[in-house]
Each structure stands twice: as C-alpha cells, then as structure tokens.
Design a protein that fits this description.
By secondary structure, the protein is α/β, with parallel strands linked by helices. The chain is 29% helix and 27% strand. Helix 1 runs antiparallel to helix 8, helix 3 runs antiparallel to helix 8 and helix 9 crosses helix 14.
C-alpha cells in the first residue's frame, strides 16, 4: 500500500507562502496522506499572530488539512498562557512529549503523541520540542530529556501502531543522533535547523526529511508499507509558482482586521520624531540602550540598531507600531564582560560593512546587524579606530569586568562575536519591545536619546 507525508517546518508566519503550500497540499492529498508540520509555524513578529494571540495559526493549518503540529520554540515564546490558549481554541493536535509546566506537570491541551489511521495502517506521531531551558522557565515552561520521553511514548503505545513517526523540532544534529542511538523510530519529520534536504536521509534504519524554512517548499515523502516500509522517496517541492489558496487568504484578511483592532489602540503620544539609521548613531536606538541599562541598573547599556526596522514619528504610539518597528522576540539580558571585548566589538561597529551585514541569528527578525549603541559611556574615535572609551567618568580598563545590559542576541555573540566572551548572564521574560514601550513615553529618556555618545575626533582640513 502506498502512503505519502506532506510536511512543512519553520514557516515563521510567512502566510503568503503558506497560502501557496495549501494550494499544493489540496492538489496532492488523498486518503493515504498524512499532513504534518514540524514546528515554528507561529512567529509573533507578525502583527496578525500577535494581535490574535496566535489563534490564527491553527485556523490556517486546519484549512490546509494539517493533522498535527510539533511545538517549536517560537510556537511557545509568548509564554505558557498564550500557548495554552492557542491549543485549547482548536481541534488541531499540538504535540510535544517533553514540554511541561515549570512544576513538571502536563501543559493543558498538549498531546505527547497521537495515532492516525490511514486505510487500516496505524501511524504513531510523537512530538518533540527543543531544550530551551535558558528561556522556557521565564515563560512558565520546562523541557524534559527528549530521549527519555520519546522512549516512554514508544513503550506506552507498544502494540497499538504499525509505523512510528517522530515529528521533531529538535534539529538535524539531534535527530541524527536519535536515529543512531535509538531503535523503533521509522521516520523523522524534522524542523528547527532550516535545512533544505534534496533527498531523504537514511540513518540506521530511520528515514529523516526536512523542508528548509519560511514556507518556500513543501516536503513530500512517499513510501510503500506491507508490514515494513520500503521504496522511500523524498523531495522538496518549491511553491514559488503556485497560486494562493483563496480560502487561506480569506482567513488572513479576517484576522488582520481583528489584529489591527486589538493592537492599534493608542498607548500614548510622543512629542518629537525618533529617527533611526543602520550605521549612524540615532535617538531611538540610544533610547533603547538607556532603557535596558536602567532596567538592570548596569554600568552600560549596549544594543545594535538592527534590532529595529525603523524609527517612529511624533504623535500616537500603539503596540501595533512597536511590533512593526521592533519585531524580534529578543529578551533583555544582563552579562558581565571584560573591557577588551567591549572595545573590540565597538571598534568593529565603526565599519559600515559590519553594520550592513545580514543580522540573521536566533530570534533576530530584522535585516541588518546595525551599529552598536551605548548608554553610560562616551566613545572618542577618528572614524577608523577608537581613541578612548569613558565609562561612568573613568577610562575603560581592558581586564576589568563591566556589568552590561543588552539583548540575548548580542550576549550570544551574534554579529559581534567578541561579545560572547561573557559570564553570569541573566534574562528577563519580557521582549525588548516591551522595554521600548515602557520608556518611549518618558520625556527624560526621549530628551537624553539625542545626546551623542560617539564623539568624532577626526581632524578635517579647512577649505
């Protein structure tokens, strides 16, 4: 008997692409087709997902015919309450055998696995989520050991199924290790690594397939089953030339209106334009550096301008606007780092080609890396090199550890690698844009944001 799995992963709220995927799914599916998503379908950088508390995601997946989704890190990054609301407002199974509440109890509505019957063949679908225990506890969740939990689920369902599928958001390295070290898993539909696999990979009797990211491809895995799996073929179909599914577009249109109404309510007014630039020091990024420094009461605040897409004009400020200009789900972060690494990163930031680098990295939703902006310090430079850095009235000491407020993106060394040489990191649960929301209405911070911290000491010739 012939079967196929149509699958996606890491769509990250690219709904235009998803509408094309839906068209192809509806063309290809039959009674022996499983339709699965391996996680990170939701990305709350998108105003529509934010403004509907994520409930639009399951509506889209169900309309396209999906039968289950694994819970990826981005699916849960709005916290356990939003995740629970998403799950309990839909019939779509959200799967994870290893994501639990902080007290290790089950999250309401999360299914560890499901069994789907296709023409009398029973498929056990087990979901797994990545170990993000640096952040999950801030969100009211925890990740258990995925290998132990997978084995428990296989054992619990022994005799109830014919084919075991791991619907995983662990990533290719972890899932290759699972295939090499664990028996009993026939197929792994993979996510998290964003890898576009040209063909299915066979690892120790387990078939692994993944479909890139952002909804650019639909994964198609075909096989025969007559008591065992055979004739396995995997490909990724590029959907660029497909038509958009009108029923998906209707759901998008309806929920964009809902989101706009929910998020478009004015929070307050500001009395001046707060402009933005990728390379030049600018007031809105200065304000953010000041704000996170104040939150942690640190020696300095340090943030890259690429964390924001634009500035904001004077007048009304809404949460919708803040999500648009600061979409990255990054957390305010405390770290301690030596002066020599700060100086190296700041000197790199003088180079426009560094600032215009692709800023891609975990949690980053902007385009460019951007200039480093600082609070609590003055930097004298000649456009090519730093001459002097003054922190709280004292010249920077290269071996001294400084208390720095930043983002988890910079703390990991994303973009500016020397910043990864830190210790004693601590994270706050709210996103950076919430800090921006809370400080953009404070007149003293708006006023101070226009005070330059980068002082150009280059000597120019008179004409």
């Amino acid at each position: 008997m012939k079967f196929k799995i149509l699958h996606t992963n890491d769509i990250h709220s690219r709904t235009d692409n998803f509408s094309k995927i839906s068209t192809k799914i509806k063309e290809l599916k039959d009674e022996n087709t499983l339709i699965l998503d391996a996680g990170d379908f939701h990305d709350f950088k998108d105003v529509m997902f934010q403004g509907t508390d994520g409930t639009v995601g399951a509506k889209l997946l169900l309309e396209a015919g999906y039968e289950a989704i694994a819970i990826g890190n981005n699916d849960g990054f709005e916290g356990v309450d939003i995740l629970t609301s998403m799950i309990n407002n839909t019939t779509l199974p959200f799967l994870s055998c290893n994501i639990v509440n902080l007290d290790k109890s089950s999250i309401e509505g999360v299914k560890r696995s499901i069994i789907i019957d296709k023409s009398g063949v029973k498929f056990l679908i087990i979901g797994t989520s990545p170990d993000y225990n640096d952040f999950f506890p801030l969100l009211g969740m925890n990740a258990l050991d995925y290998k132990e939990e997978i084995l428990k689920e296989i054992d619990f369902n022994k005799g109830k199924y014919d084919v075991c599928i791991l619907l995983s958001h662990l990533g290719l390295i972890e899932d290759t290790d699972i295939a090499n070290t664990m028996d009993g898993i026939d197929i792994i539909i993979d996510g998290h690594s964003h890898k576009l696999m040209e063909e299915v990979q066979l690892v120790n009797n387990t078939f692994i397939h993944m479909s890139g990211c952002y909804g650019e491809n639909l994964g198609i895995l075909e096989f025969d089953y007559d008591g065992k799996i055979s004739n396995v073929k995997g490909l990724n179909y590029n959907i660029a030339n497909e038509k958009m599914d009108e029923s998906i577009l209707k759901i998008i249109e309806e929920n964009k209106k809902i989101a706009k109404n929910n998020l478009g309510v004015p929070l307050y007014n500001i009395n001046r334009d707060m402009w933005h630039d990728v390379v030049e020091e600018n007031p809105i990024t200065n304000l953010l550096a000041d704000a996170i420094r104040d939150v942690f009461n640190c020696d300095i605040g340090l943030i890259n301008s690429g964390i924001m897409n634009s500035g904001i004009r004077k007048g009304e400020v809404s949460l919708k606007k803040l999500i648009e200009i600061c979409p990255s789900p990054l957390n305010p972060t405390y770290m301690e780092i030596q002066g020599k690494y700060l100086k190296s990163a700041l000197e790199q930031s003088l180079e426009p080609e560094i600032c215009y680098k692709d800023g891609s990295g975990a949690g980053f939703r902007g385009k460019f890396l951007g200039r480093l902006h600082i609070s609590g310090a003055l930097i004298e430079h000649n456009e090519n090199h730093i001459i002097k850095i003054i922190i709280n009235g004292q010249e920077l000491e290269e071996e001294k550890y400084y208390r720095v407020a930043t983002s988890d993106y910079l703390q990991r060394g994303s973009g500016y690698k020397d910043l990864a040489n830190n210790k004693n990191e601590k994270y706050k649960v709210e996103y950076i844009r919430i800090i921006l929301r809370d400080y953009l209405c404070r007149e003293e911070f708006i006023k101070n944001a226009s005070v330059d911290r980068w002082i150009n000491k280059k000597i120019t010739k008179k004409c």
